[in-house]
Amino acid sequence: MFKSEARYLVRRKDPALWEHVLREDNQYRRPLIDQVIQTALAETQDPEEISVTVKAFMTADLPNNLIELLEKIVIDNSVFSEHRNLQNLLILTAIKADRTRVMDYINRLENYDAPDIANIAISNQLYEEAFSIYKKFEVNTSAIQVLIDHIKNLDRAYEFAERCNEPGVWSLLANAQIRQGLVKEAVDSFIKADDPTSYLEVVNVATQNQSWEDLVRYLQMARKKARETFVETELAFAYAKTNRLADLEEFISSPNHAQIQAVGDRCFEQEMYDAAKILFNNISNYAKLAVTLCHLGDYQGAVDSARKANSTKTWKEICFACIDKQEFRLAQICGIQIVVQAEELEELINYYQNRGYFEELIQLLEAALGHERAHIGMFTELAILYSKYMPQKMRELLELFWSRVRKPKVLRACEQAHLWSELVFLYDKYEEFDNAILTMIAHPTEAWRENHFKDIISKVANVELYYKAIDFYLEFKPMLLNDLLLVLSARLDHTRAVNYFIKG
Questions:
Q1: Phi-psi category of residue 309: left, alpha or beta, with phi > 0 → left and psi -120 to 50 → alpha
Q2: Residue 461's pLDDT is what?
Q3: Looking at the domain assignment, is residue 477 inside a domain?
Q4: How far apart are the C-alpha atoms of 244 and 385, rounded to whole Å?
């Protein structure tokens, strides 16, 4: 009925007339549209007629009718079946008006602008359709990106990557897996991609997950591609964490850019002493090597390394460690290097004394006296130690080295230890004759010696001590009084002495 009218409308190519007819809301509108679609367009081969007709439907906002029209043109009409713009328009109209048809169009059509259509599909949350477009046109990196970012299915993404087996696809999958903390899976994917670019993130996540074996595999691959200092440093540490010490030793013995000192410090902090030993030995850091060997129980080796380091700090650390393990022979070797430094002496003495190792401390100081750098502090401290723990040795030390001790400290030590004879000896040597006489008078049993007393009394400065001495002899040594008076006669006030005896 409307066949002729439909042909007329199509062939007139008059947009204004089309718009008037399509907007005319009457009983003839729908039959006319159907007739245009079923008859007129099927017969036309003029692109301009098609263009005007499609625009008219678009202007009239009749998407469902437009879909029907475009299906007839694109799918049923072989003349326009490969027309790119019409295929684009059919899919885009379906996205807007009838999403259920989009997937079918994507699969059936071949000549549309795939990337643009896919982006529009994504913006309209048609993720499966977008994935199908990329997959169909083998834009595989974009396809897996949809699976990862929008569909969020890593299992499907893995299956897709296996089918494609392209480095770029594996790389995208690997980055997604590492973000999810799937270290083993991510490393497998990175290796298949031969992609070392994400080494910072891989190291960070693998470290957090304690996935050291997987990290070794990744860093071995990364090292072949990029000789980065960070990569090689982390590889050395990963070898240590996995206890692959042979691999570690081989690695650091060959040319590398690893920061061996930093790796050694990290191993030491985490108590991986076997690895730290290898690393510190490689860079000849004998100070850290010595301390490391202590933790490994190799105290002889620690002392040997301390000797090479020749550092006071190292000597102290090794000495204290040997003391704690009661390795006193080795502690003495270290201690001799410490006590010859006056400022370090007190700390070492306290360390021994606080643990009750008095004899060992004395042996150390005795051994150190012959050192070319022996100083007054060593002789003084040994004298004090003798006064406390080995008084029988005090006299011999003082007779040999009285001039090399600090007088106030040793005098005080002798007094506190009640070593009266030694106290008199020191007073005499330091020409404190008055104190020497007073000490002998106060402690005659231990300190008084006749000849010594007579020798010193003649040197005192305080004359009153003569009369104290006379009084002392009257009480304790009356038979020797004449001998004393013979010594004092030249300096006594004879009148006062006579009166002293008369009163006595």
A1: alpha
A2: 87
A3: yes
A4: 51
What is the rounded distance in angstroms from the CA atom of residue 417 to the CA atom of residue 68? 119
Does 396 fall in a domain?
A: no
Give the per-residue pLDDT at 192: 96
Q: Residue 298 phi/psi, 5° resolution? A: -95, 80
Distances (CA, A) of 40 to 76, 141, 338, 422: 13, 44, 110, 137
Amino acid in the structure at residue 221 = M
- Tell whether 488 is covered by a domain: yes
If we measure between CA atoms, which residue out of 404, 428, 426, 429 comes closest to residue 413?
A: 426
pLDDT digits (tens, 9 = 90+) for 38-55: 554 555 555 555 555 555
The whole-angstrom separation of Cα 21 and Cα 29 is: 7
- Which range of residues forms the domain containing residue 497? 426-504
Answer for the pair 303, 333: CB distance below 8 angstroms, yes or no. Answer: yes
Q: Is the pLDDT of residue 2 over 50?
A: no
Domain count, the chain: 1
Asked whether 99 and 130 are in contact (CB, 8 A), the reply is no
For residue 204, give both structure tokens: 């960070």
Closest CA to 338 of 327, 352, 326: 352
CA 63, 67, 70 angle in degrees (round to 5)? Answer: 130
Sorting pLDDT into bands at 50, 70 and 90, what band is 93?
Answer: confident
Token look-up 């550092």 returns 311
DSSP string across 105-163? HHHH--SS-HHHHHHHHHHTT-HHHHHHHHHHTT-HHHHHHHIIIII--HHHHHHHHHH
CA distances in angstroms from 141 to 117, 164, 172, 188, listed in the order given: 16, 10, 7, 18
DSSP state at residue 428: H
Longest dimension (CA), the chain: 175
The Cα 319–Cα 330 span in angstroms is 7
Is 485 a domain residue? yes
Residue type at position 146: V
